[in-house]
Amino acid sequence: MLGIIKGDLRFTYLNEMIKDSILSNNLHDFYNIDKLLIPFNGINSDYIIKGTNINIKDILKNNSINTIYTGNANNELVKLCLEHNITLYELLKDNGFVMENAYLTAKGIIHYMHDYLNDIKDYRVLVLGYGNIGFYMCQLLKSNKTSFSVYTQNPLEEKYILLNNYKLEKNITDDYDIIINTIPSNLNVNYDRLINTKIYDIASSPYGFNIEEIVKRNIKYEVVSAIPSKYAPYSAAKIVEKYIKKIYK
Predict the structure, then answer these.
(1) 183: left (phi over 0), alpha (psi -120 to 50) or beta
(2) Residues 6+ positions from 120 with CB-CB distance below 8 Å
(3) Residue range 32-59: average pLDDT?
(4) Does 206 sit behind a cis peptide bond, omega within 30 degrees of 0 on the bond before it?
(5) How far apart are alpha carbons 177 and 122 in whole angstroms?
(6) pTM of the prediction?
């Protein structure tokens, strides 16, 4: 049986898809399970599963776990799985999952950007970063006939931006209505030039901008997380199901 730690809506749908599963954030509900799906951000250094008050060691004491699924594992989780001979599967290290999830994320952001007043093509957009999400964002912006540019600090990403005939931006400026950030690192920017720009930050912590500088200038800034679950939770759950079943024992 698969134990699923309760999280966002995609995990609720996943529980419905997999008949032999239990969804909970209560330690006492996890018994007679041999597989465990924990949140994508894993566990804390004290072994508490993130978003809960459950110590993962307590689940292991009460069950014969042979497989743990997560997004990214820290050293504590890796070591714990080695000690207990548990197969550890990190979804965010599976290129197939990452690409499918990134595509759904990009589609979700396009949907999120619509304000019920203007079509996306009426905006000037700057995409920061050209990894998996940035790649799909640019494809979708192009198909929507949106004027956009791409900024990166990575020479390899710069090469592929130019190969795809996208406009390469060398600076983060106020020439854009919307900035979409995918770079998980505070960027060196002139915040005074961003006052009239709407920023969607979809990167992981520490995000792309200094929050204190953002607040000081009252810049329109929003951290948008768990986008697949907010945009299309059932579809997001189907992607998770597909990949955890790859090594479902």
Answers:
(1) beta
(2) 110, 113, 114, 141, 144, 146
(3) 95
(4) yes
(5) 9
(6) 0.91
